[in-house]
Amino acid sequence: MRAHTTGSPVMMRAIVGLAVAAALLVGACDFNLTDPNSPRAIGPNATAGQVSAAAVGILAAFRFDYSSWVLKAGIIGREDYRLDGADPRFTIELLAGPLDPSNAAFGGGQWQREYRTIQSGYTILNVIGSAQIPDSQKNAVRAFVQTMQALSFLIILDAHTEDSIPLDVNRTADKPLAPFVSNDSAYKAVIAILDSARDSLKSASTFPFDLGPGFVGFNTPATFLKFNRALAARVRAYQASLGALPANTYATSWTSCPACWDSVLTALGQSFIDPAAPLDVGAYVAYGTGNQDVPNDLSQDPATAIQLAHPLLKDSAELQSGSTTLLDKRFLAKVTNRPKPFPLACLSSDLSWIRYPTPISSIPIIRNEELFLLRAEANLNKGGVGLTAAANDINFIRTTSGGLDPITNLGSQSPDSILNVLLKQRFYSLLYEGGHRWIDMRRYGKLSQIKIDRPKGCAASGIPPDTVFSTLPINSFEVQARQ
Description:
The chain is mainly α. It has a domain at 13-65 and 110-210: Alpha Horseshoe (Serine Threonine Protein Phosphatase 5, Tetratricopeptide repeat), CATH 1.25.40. Helix content is 42%, strand content 7%. It has helices spanning 13-16, 20-23, 48-63, 66-76, 89-92, 112-125, 135-159, 183-201, 221-240, 252-255, 258-269, 312-315, 329-334, 368-382, 386-400, 415-429, 436-443, 476-481; strands at 80-82, 165-166, 180-181, 282-285, 307-309, 335-344, 347-353, 363-367. The strands form four sheets. Strands 1-5 form a two-stranded antiparallel ribbon. It has a two-stranded antiparallel sheet with strand order 2-3. A hairpin with a 2-residue loop joins strand 6 and strand 7. Helix 8 (183-201) runs antiparallel to helix 9 (221-240). The longest helix has 25 residues, at 135-159. Residues 1-40 and 244-251 have low confidence and may be disordered.
């Protein structure tokens, strides 16, 4: 955990005092809000309509920052570039630094907006007990809100792994600011929040609001529970693999807690993992182009796009089974060739994204494909007979999603070798979906293996040598609030 020098540990007052109305200043995405930009804030004795508007507002608030997170974390992890001649900060600050803690796009993000979503959730949880809906529906609302809060906390942790973060933010602006807690404590708290939501779902009936198109197949308490458990599996895997360790070292600490990895497997067993289901089955952040809606700004015309795929994606892609020309299906489904390379600031790419082909394309939160890779990771770290199980899941993803040949002796290879294969499959399976490459390489101590494109900088543009950041800085407004 990185030390802080600001003295008193706090949560930014401006965020703590926000109400649900402030969290809803984003589009409705077909969520049937009469006025999504100024809904009535929820209070005691809320009607069913007020509860619905407030709960849908959590979805709207959550998606506000999601595409930015995918882009920025992808740049830091060298999944993508943004070669923007009008804004050189994408090729300077995010690749070479310094990161700017005062700007959400270039270092200070994954903080204010995520905490706004979390605090908005508490404004619901604090009064849902008196709402004019059945108790079984109150439990459904509690479970939904807590699950989305946990997801928001996880994004904050993903972006600030070397920092402590504020956790106890359910307080009004006149109260002392929330103390920082260690990452380990925060992960435990996120798991506890997810488990509390799980318990509420077991006594819930129906959701008294529409979860929207991103949760098709997960819009009842029974099916939403499977989404909740999928997130729990991811969080437990991240918690169990914490720590920046030397590259190419299969750390005994990762295998010294079989119970940690057993908890991943338990959660997966209660999730929606299914070999017979499409690998794209999952929960998504939905977008739209209607009145007062929000489009997916990761969607661009491939011929003129400035958000480009890193050349490494093509250079490292394997050939499909039986082919001498066709690359990994996952690469071909997400990336296409440009007519000619696009150079800027000593960087260049001739690869455009087609992962999100239209402004209404949804961004995955978690998919069936990731669940198999999480199960492989858990079995790998358990060791022993788990190595064979891990190899089976890895090969299932290689063949089913990538169209690649299975690695026939994978289960008999060293844990280090299996881990490297697993990380490569996660790279291609989860491309451009939420910074997974950056997160994975960091938690397994392999950030030094991420390609540096400009080791000597770019003299023509006055850019210093590139680096790979391990964390984002704490937002400067947070720092100022506790001085």
